[in-house]
Amino acid sequence: MIGYTGLPKEFGNFGDKAKLEFPQSSTYHKVLVVCIDRDNDIGSKGGIQTPVLGRDKCIDAGIRLALEDPEDADANAIFGAVKLFEELVTKGYESEVAIVGGRYNRGIEADEKIILEFRQIISQFKAEGVVIVSDGEDDETVIPIIQTIVPVISIQRIIIRHSRSVEYSYAVLGRYIKMLVYDSRYSKFFLGVPGALLIASGLATVFGFTREALAIVLSILGAAFVMRAFDIDKALGSLSRPTPSSFIRIFSTFAGIMIILVAIFNGLSSIPSGLIDSNVAMTKLITNRLVVGSFVHGTITLLWIGIATIFGGMLLSNWFKGSIRIMSDMLRLVVLGLIYIPVVQFTSVLTEGASPFNLISSLLVGLAITLVAATFLFQYFRNKKGGEELKH
To answer: Is beta strand 94-101 parallel, antiparallel or unpaired with respect to 30-37?
Structure first.
């Protein structure tokens, strides 16, 4: 069974038997009912291409999704949208029902796809108001953008009614545990990372590296965090769906990491041998101005080239995909280039005793250029985005 929440008071109660009551003085005559599926279950599970417009097509899409996954709440949301559409028609409204879908990984690209599909529907059915139907708060994140196109009259949230008995509570808990085990989006880290840690600990114990086991475990855990933080796992997963943007990002990341490693070794070799003594404590070496300055001087150029290679690959990847993120990628490269000169001057202060005022002036100039570049890029992309919206 399904229930509806989120109605304003003037619309009355909408439950199993109650009907949706619009005010008699309503100025909305053409109302569009839209079901939002942000993670695109209707496409990934049901194989339905969105947007879907029309009562019969929406029912067919809901049946297809329910047959593929009877436990998916989006199927109930689709049928709830159709039910609401039929009630509006009986009230005398000129109404239509539609389904829009995002992308599997949600995020900005999913929201952009939803807005694009919504504009396609509005171009076919000139609605005066919209009723949003969803199965949770995640699908409702695009509502503020939809409101800038067509007024949102109401938000209907479809909730699956579960039994309150202990048996059904265990069934729901088991469903989520099954999702953690079999859904690749979650199992990679909820099972993969702990599994790798257990295997590494077991092998270290078998081969007599018990003391090193903690270091191995921490290294694996840190590598997993880094891969997730920088979307390296997604980049590797995209190899199964080869695109120019994915290959560019993978190659640039690999090349950048190799250059950074070379930069570190070059920095270590730049330290004069007379400054390194095995009997000297590590803390004294780190606080030695000549040691730090020599290391940074030998590292800085290659290090910056490596980081710029990674950032440049991200820029080209997003440019191929037409993503708005290229603005942030450009700013990264600009800031990276502006920081280079202050870092070089910092090494001169450490190794040659140069005046620190040149460093301070370079930082101030870099800050001013960064503000100007950020303002210019923001205005440029905002105007460009506005022009694209006018075209739609």
So the answer is: parallel
Q: Per-residue DSSP letters for 301-320?
A: HHHHHHHHHHHHHHHHHHHH
Across the range 212-216, mean pLDDT stands at 75
CA dihedral 254, 259, 263, 266 (to 10 degrees): 120
- Give the sheet arrangement for strand 129-134, strand by strand: 2-5, 152-160, 129-134, 30-37, 94-101, 52-53
Please, where are the H alpha helices in 273-288? 282-287
Tell me the CA distances in angstroms from 136 to 114, 243, 289, one per residue in order.
16, 32, 57
Pair of tokens at residue 304: 């910056």
- Residue pair 32/127 in contact by the 8 Å Cβ criterion: yes
Torsional sign, CA 324, 326, 330, 333:
positive
Q: Are 193 and 220 in contact (CB under 8 A)?
A: yes
Of residues 168 and 279, the one with the higher pLDDT is: 168
Query: Distance between CA 314 and CA 332 in Å, rounded?
Result: 10
What tokens were used for 84?
């609401």
Between 289 and 112, the more confident residue is 112
**Residue pair 111/142 in contact by the 8 Å Cβ criterion:** yes
The enclosing H or E element of 236 equals helix 232-237
**pLDDT tens across 342-372, in order?**
888 877 777 676 677 777 877 888 788 888 8
- CB contact set of 234 (below 8 Å; sequence gap of 6+): 105
* pLDDT per residue as tens digits for the range 23-53: 444 577 889 999 988 888 888 888 888 899 9
